Amino acid sequence: MTSKKSSANPFLYTFKSSLKKCFFIPLIYSVIVSVYFSLRGFYEVYQNYINQMDPNNINASAAGAESYLKGFTYVISRGALSDGVYFAYLSLMLIAALLAVMIFKFICSKKSVNVYYSLPITRSSLFTAKYLAGAVMLIAASLIPYLVAFAGNIWLFGFTKELILAVIYCSLSSFVSAMLIFTLTAFILNFVGSVVEGMVYTVSIAAIITAFSKFVETLFNNFVYGSPYLFTYWVTGDDSGYHRASAFNSFPFGNPFTFSVNGKSYLMHLSTEEWVAPDFLPVIFWAVICAVLYAAAVVSFRRRKAEKAGFLGMCLPLTQIAVVSLSLVIYTLVFEILDYEGFTNNQKSVIAVFSVLLLAVVWIVIHACVLRSAKKILKKSWMLGIEAAVLAAVCVLFASPLSAGFTSVPDADDIESVAVTTGVGDVYAAPFTNSVRDSFYYEGSEMTEETYFTDLMFFGSSDSLIAGFDSKEDIELVRQVNEEINETGGYKEPYGVTDINEKCYDSNIVIEYTLKNKSRVVRCYNAVKYSTASKLVKLTQSENYKDAVIEKLDPANNGEIYTSGYAVALVSPKLDRMSVLNKIDLYEMMNEVVTDIKADRMPICRNTTETPVGFIMFAVTDREYAYSEVTEDFGLEGATISVEAVSSKVFEDRGSALWLHDFWVMSIPVYPSMSNTVAYLENEGLSEYFKSEKQIVKAELFSDKVEDALFYGMKSSLEFSGCHFGVNVERDVPELTADKVVTDPETVEMISDKTLLTGVRTENGYFVRLTFDDGSCTMGYIPESLFSDVNIK
Amino acid sequence: MIELKSVTKKFGDFTAVENLSFKVDKASVYGLVGYNGAGKTTVLKTVAGVYRPDGGEVLVDGENVFDSARQKAKIFYVPDDLYFEPYASLYDMAKFYSGYYKDFSFETFDKLINVFGLDKKARINSFSKGMQRQGELVLGMSTNPKILLLDESFDGLDPSKRNLMNNMVMEYMAERECSVIVSSHNLHELAGICDRIALIGGKKLVMDCNVDDISASRAKFRVVFEDEKTQADFIAINHKNFKKDGKIITFVVEGNFDEAEHKLNAMKPLLVEKYPLSLEEIFLAEMEGSDYDFKEIFG
Question: Pairing between strand A724-727 and B14-24?
Fold first, then answer.
C-alpha cells in the first residue's frame, strides 16, 4: 500500500502535467526538422561531390571531390540553415496550433471543465501554467533545430558573428510567430464550445489579414484601371528592386504570421557571403502584441462561461469573422481562376451580385453547421443583411465611376519627380527581349493569319523604371500620358479601328510618381493607344534616359547587368546568323558601346531608321548554367563541345532548334555611327560575325496588314524571346498571301536594304518577308517614307 | 458552512435557477431533490465554482467560492458526468488530484479502494458506470474535502453498493465534520442519509426542511369510528392529507400528537393508530395543494 501525503503545488503540477502530456509533439518536430536540416545538407554535399566527379565538368578536381567527400561525414552544410526554413516554419505553426488545442481543449468538454474549474487553482493560474508549458515547448521547438544547424555549421565552417545572429533571429522570430498562433488559438478557445470551432476560427482570424488584403488587391486589380496591385514592377529609390504591390505592404511590421519567414530571406545572403543584418524590430513588435493577446486571453479565460463547453455556435461574432474570411478567400480564388481583365460595367454589376450571393451561401452554410436550426438561423439573419449590405456597398463603390478616383493622376504641383517605363522599348526590352507580362503570350499559341502581325506587338519594359524625370515638361508629359491611358480604360480590340492613333495595344507601362511629401504613387497599365505611346517615345530622347542607360550598361557599374561566365552572341543585321562566342571580353566591348552612347553615337531612341550593322547579345546570367541547359535539352551530355562549337555545329548538323537558356537577354544594336564599337569589333576580328551567311532569294510585301502592327522585326530566322535566344532554322512560318512577291535578285537586294528588321513602327508602312536560300524567313518593315525609294508598285 | 445567497443562473435566455438561497451546516448532509432539469446540477456546479452565478453568490466559510483556490481546496465535486484522464487508472487519477489537493491521502485512497474492491491499476474506461462512480467517490474522499458535492452519485447503483456508499459518506461526514450536498431526482435514493432535504423545481426551492424536525413534528393517524365521520368532524385537530376509505380514515397531524390523540380518543373511536411518516409522505403532506410533479421524484 502506498502511504504518502501530497505536497500539492497546483500551478507547478499543471505546468508539469501539461508538459508531460504534450512534450512528444515538439520533440517529434525537433527531431524531424533537425534531421531534415541535416539531410538537406547531406544532399547538397552529395550533389557537389557528384559534380566534382563528373568528367565533363571542366571545373571538377580531385581535391574538390575529396573535399565534398569529406563533407559526407558532416552531413550538414551552411545551406541547410536556409533551405529548411520554410518547411520548419510551416510545421512550427501547425505545432503551435496543435499544442494550444491539446493543452486547452479541456474547456470545450463538459466533463473535463467540471473537473478543471472545480480544482483548487484560480483560473488565471490554471491558464498561465498551461500557457507557460506551451511556451516552453515552443521555445524548445524553435531553438533545437537551429541549434543543430548551428552546430553543423560551426563544425564545417567555423563560428562567425553572423551565424550566431542568424540562429538567434531564426529561433526568436519563429518562436514569436508560433506563440502568436498558440496564444490566438488559446484565446479563441475561450469563446467557443468546441475544438473544431476553435480551430476554424483561429484559421479564419489568422487568414483574414491576408484574405482581406488579397480581396482589396483583387478589387483594385479588376475594377480600378491603373492600380499597381498584383503587378510586379521595379521600384526606384533606396529600396529599389522588384516589388509586388500589396495592400498589406503599407503595414510596417508585415503579416504577424509570415513576418518571420520573410525576414529569414537574409539567410540566403549569408550563403552567398552577402550579410544583411536581420531586423529585430518586427520581432519585438509582435512579441508585444503576443503579450497583449496573452493578457486578453487570461481575462477571457477567467470570465469564460463553463456552460459553453460542448456546444456549437457559442460565439457568433467569431462565426461572422469565419464567414467573412472564407467569403473573401473564395471571392479572391474565383478571380484568380478567372484571371480576367477589363470588365465592362455590366460585368461589374454581375460580379457585385455574385459577391453578395457568395457571402450569403457561405453565411448560410456556416450557420447551418453551427446553429443547426432554421429558426435560429432566421433569427440571426439580420447579421447577414448587414454583412451583405457592406459588401454590396464596397462592390458598388468599386464598380462605379467613383473608383477611378483611386488612380487619379497626381497634381503637377505635388510631383517632385517621375519614374517610368519608356513604353516603346528601352535597351532592356524591345525588340529582342519582348518582355511583357506572361499573360500576353497567349496570343502566340493561337497564331492565325489574322493575328500574325499582331501577336508580338507588345512593347514596354517590365524591367527597370527609368527614374529621375523631374523637369516640368517631362512631368507634364507623363501626366498627360497617364491621363490618356486612364481614359482608354484597358485593352480594346484593335481590329475595326482604322485610325492608327486610336488603336490600343497590349503594353506594360509603369509610372511611379514621387511626390513632394516623399510618398510614392504607382500606376500600372497593360494597354496603351499608339498616339499615347508615341508621346512616351519622347522620353527616350532625353539626357535623363541616356544617363539611365549608361548607368545600367557601363561595366564600371557592373553587378547589376553583368555576371561572371556570361554568354555572348553576335547577330547579323538580317538576323540570319547568330554566333555564340566564349572568347569575347564583354566588359571591354561594352566599354566601347558606353563610350559611343555617351557621345550620342547610339540612337537610343528606337524610332530610328538607321540600319544596324549587327547586334550584340549577351545573357545576363551564368554561362555554366546556360551551357548545362543546352546539353540537357538536346541530349549532348558528355559531349566536350565548347559553346562556340555548339552554336555553329549543331544547327548545321541537326537542323533543329537550339536554345541557349537564360533568364534575360540583352541586345545592343550596333549602328555604323557607333565608331568606337565598330572599331573594336574590327580590331578584334569580330565584325565578320555580322556578315550574313545566307542569300535572300525572295521578298514578299504585305500592304494591307501594316496598320495593325506597332513592332516589327520579331519574325526572323533567328528567334528571340524573353527567356531564350538562339537559332531556329526550321521556322514554322504561317502561310500568308503577299500582295507582292519579288524574286528578282536586284530588286530583292534593294528591298532588303530598305527593310528594317528591328525597331518601333512610328508610321504606316509595309511588312516584308525575306526568304533565305535555306527556306528560313525574316520579317521586316518598310516605312512609308522609305517606300518611295523602293521602286516597285 | 455553505451559504447560497439569492443565486440566479441563466443559460442564455433560459433561467435555470432564480434567487435561490439556502445554507448547509458543517457535518450535515443536504439533499437536493427535483425532477430532471429542475436545476440540481446547476446549483451544485455553482457551489463547486464551475459556474459563475449571474446573480447572488455562493459563500464557503464566508468567502465567495467562485475562482477562490483556497475555498475550492475544501471542496470536491463528484459530477454526474464523470471525467477521467484518457486511458487513466484510478491510481493515475489519484496522482492527478494529489497535484491539486494538499490534503490528498494515498493512505485513504488505498483503504477505500480495498473497501470497494476496485483495481487501482486498471484503466477506468474498462469499469462499469457504477464502479466509476465508486472510484470517483474514493478519489473525492481521498482529497479529504470539507465539502463533498455529489451529483446523482447514488442513482442507478445496486442496493448493496448504494448502502456501502451511503455508509461511507455518512461515516466520512461524521468523522470529518464534512458538509455534503447530494442531489437526486429520486427521493428514495436519499432516504436515510439526509439531515436536510430541499425540493427544487420551477427555478426555485419549493421546500427546504430538516428531516428529523419534520419527522418529529408530524405523525400519521389511522382511525376507525362506528358511525360516519367527515373531515369537518376533525376540525379541532390540526391535520393534513385527510383520506377516507370506507370507515378507515387517515390524516397527518403536525404539532402536538398527544393532544391530537387525546381529542381523538374523546370521539370514542373503534381504533386509533399513530405512525411515523416516510419521506414521501412528509413531502406529499407539505406539498399538498401545489402543482409539483412528484411522479419522477418518487420513482
Answer: unpaired
Q: Are the beta carbons of B105 and A5 separated by less than 8 Å?
A: yes
pLDDT at A179: 96
Q: How confident is the model at residue A268 (pLDDT cuts 50, 70, 90)?
A: very low
| Residue A9: all three cell numbers together | 503545488
At B30 the pLDDT is 94
ipTM of the complex: 0.87
B72 and A118: CB-CB below 8 Å?
A: yes
B143 vs A789, residue with greater confidence: B143
3-state DSSP helix/strand/coil percent for chain B, to nearest 5?
A: 35, 30, 35
CA atoms of A23 and A565, how far apart (whole Å)? 52
> Could you tell me the three cell numbers for B99?
497535484
By DSSP bridging, strand A232-235 and strand B196-201 are unpaired
CA distances for B210 relative to A575, A689, B175, B193, B201, angstroms: 112, 117, 21, 12, 18
Which among A1, A13, A306 has the least Cβ separation from residue B100? A13
Q: Tell me the C-alpha distance between A24 and A28, whole Å.
A: 6
Mutation choice for A interface testing from B14, B67, B100, B104 by most A CBs within 10 A? B100
Question: Taking a C-beta distance cutoff of 8 angstroms, is the pair B31, B190 a contact?
Answer: yes
Which position has the higher pLDDT, A641 or A464?
A: A464
pLDDT of residue A724: 32
At residue A265, does pLDDT exceed 50?
no
A&B contacts, CB < 8 Å: 94
Q: Map residue A737 onto helix, strand or coil.
A: coil
Q: How many CB atoms lie within 10 A of CB A536?
A: 25
Pairing of strands B28-33, B179-184: parallel
pLDDT confidence of residue A497: 56
Sign of the dihedral defined by the CA atoms of residues B22, B28, B29, B31, in that order: negative
- Domain range annotation of chain A: 10-27+79-220+253-308, 316-404, 408-428+463-542, 554-787
Which residue pairs, CB below 8 angstroms and at least 24 apart, start in A682-691? A684/A584, A684/A589, A686/A570, A686/A581, A686/A584, A687/A613, A687/A614, A689/A570, A689/A572, A689/A577, A689/A579, A689/A581, A689/A614, A690/A570, A690/A571, A690/A572, A690/A573, A690/A613, A690/A614, A691/A572, A691/A577
**How many residues would you count in chain A?**
793
Task: Assess whether pLDDT exceeds 50 at residue A278.
Answer: yes
Shortest Cα distance, chain A CAs vs residue B81, angstroms: 6
Cell numbers given for B148: 463533498
Is cis: bond before A410, omega within 30 of 0? Answer: no
Grouping H, G, I as helix, E, B as strand and the rest as coil, residue A239 is coil
* Distance in angstroms (rounded) separating the CA atoms of residues A25 and B274: 72
State how far the Cα of A432 lies from the Cα of A437, in Å rounded to an integer: 15
Check residues A769 and A746 and name the one with the higher pLDDT. Answer: A746
The alpha carbon torsion through A646, A652, A658, A660 (nearest 10 deg) reads: 30
Please state, in angstroms and rounded to a whole number, the distance separating the CA atoms of residues A264 and A497. Answer: 52
Identify whether the C-beta of residue A459 lies closer than 8 Å to the C-beta of residue A425.
yes
Q: How do residues B196-208 score in pLDDT, each as one tens digit?
A: 989 887 788 888 8
Minimum distance, in Å, between the CA of residue B267 and any CA atom of chain A:
60
Q: Are A646 and A636 in contact (CB under 8 A)?
A: yes
Which chain A residues have a beta carbon less than 8 Å from that of B50?
Answer: 113-114, 117-118, 306
Average pLDDT over residues A710-723: 36
Helix and strand element counts for chain A (H, E): 26, 19
Residue owning grid cell 493543452: A103
Cβ pair B101:A114 closer than 8 A: no
CATH for the stretch B217-286: 3.30.70
**B86 vs A contacts (CB less than 8 Å):** none
CATH code that applies to domain B2-212: 3.40.50.300
> A233 and A510 in contact (C-beta within 8 Å)?
yes
